[in-house]
Design brief:
25% of the residues lie in helices and 31% in strands. A hairpin with an 8-residue loop joins β6 and β7. The protein is α+β, with helices and mostly antiparallel strands. The protein binds zinc ion. The site of zinc ion has 8 residues, from loops.
Length: 345
């Protein structure tokens, strides 16, 4: 094999050292090498040179990196070797943390919520934080995972989201946390779970943590699940057990919902049909009603109660002939388990 055209071949060991040094802090088992050659090489020669160079580098790395392998489709890290400058740049693919979260705090949003006035740069209104809320579920879980994985940022993906003032109870809501540019990607999950649980005791809980893939994030985003809610309802007049019985008549109702007034500023005005699979209610102390609704994915439950000035029909308000409103809202189940009994929660 004539390798004389590969003028730098004598320097392969050198390049391998550059690669090893550039990746010494990364935890990975799969990788892919790319190279940048001097632009003076004509395309045909460059292709052949690359082929030889990559073969030489790979066999040298095979000896140094026992247990690691080249992956052309989905490598954990990509290494670009600049042959002229003897430099290597490393990109680390995201790590994906899969689990379920519960939220017990009625002032905690699911994800980071940039300040509306400054859009994140920091202003008087947000006291320089750039955020509407100081903390979020994303940061509760993401902050700990980011430290464990030595990443640079996180993105939070979940099967829908609850309102800020709603608790997320039951077995929790499925999420995937994307950790951007991690150095570690197989961090022990028990400490992450423990730190979140202890640091955020009474506010956020996580369970069922495992390492996943980009497919998990796609699946979570595409997932549409029925949800069950517990709602405490108040009205201008005291509500009684006859009112509760009427609310139960919403079982199997089909709702017509226009985009709620409260979210019109950030979502398009759409009319949708949503199914109430089950409605139960009982009167409780103080002239209030505690209701439970199992509804189709994408149902606005506060508006199912209030009627939203006629934008949602039927509604609890229309049914009872008085302006009802939600005092407390909890998500008690995200029915993502298709083996669960249908409409039973
Ligand atoms: Zn601000």
């Amino acid at each position: 094999m004539n390798r004389t055209s590969a003028f730098f071949v004598a320097g392969v060991d050198d390049l391998v050292d550059v690669i090893v040094r550039a990746t010494v802090r990364h935890e990975f088992t799969t990788y892919l090498i790319g190279s940048r050659l001097p632009s003076s090489l004509e395309p045909g020669a460059a292709r052949e040179t690359k082929r030889l160079l990559h073969a030489d580098i790979s066999s040298a790395l095979d000896r140094k990196w026992f247990g690691r392998r080249v992956d052309f489709d989905d490598p954990e890290i990509r290494i670009l070797v600049d042959v002229t400058h003897r430099e290597a740049t490393v990109w680390s693919a995201p790590a994906w943390l899969v689990g379920r979260y519960r939220k017990f705090d009625r002032e905690l949003p699911q994800s980071r919520w940039p300040c509306r006035r400054c859009r994140g740069s920091g202003c008087e209104r947000c006291l320089g934080t750039g955020k509407t809320y100081v903390e979020s579920v994303e940061e509760a879980i993401g902050g700990t995972a980011l430290l464990a994985c030595e990443g640079v940022a996180t993105r939070f993906h979940a099967v829908g989201r609850e309102d800020v003032d709603a608790r997320m109870l039951g077995t929790g809501r499925p999420f995937v946390l994307e950790i951007v540019e991690p150095l570690r990607r197989a961090a022990d999950l028990d400490p992450i779970q423990r730190v979140v649980t202890e640091t955020w005791a009474g506010r956020v809980g996580v369970s069922g943590l495992r390492w996943g893939s980009a497919h998990d994030a796609e699946a979570v985003k595409a997932r549409e699940c029925e949800k069950s809610y517990r709602v405490v309802i108040a009205a201008p007049r005291p509500l009684c057990s006859e009112d509760a019985a009427r609310i139960a008549d919403l079982t199997s109702a089909e709702l017509k919902q226009e985009t709620p007034n409260r979210v019109l500023h950030r979502r398009g005005d759409v009319r949708r049909r949503r199914r109430v699979f089950r409605a139960e209610a009982r009167s409780i102390r103080g002239g209030l009603i505690e209701a439970r609704f199992r509804v189709q994915s994408g149902t606005y439950v506060k508006e199912l109660v209030s009627g939203d000035s006629g934008r949602t029909t039927p509604s609890v308000s229309a049914l009872l002939g008085t302006a009802c409103r939600v005092l407390l809202l909890d998500v008690v189940a995200v029915h993502d388990d298709i083996t669960a009994l249908p409409h039973d929660s």
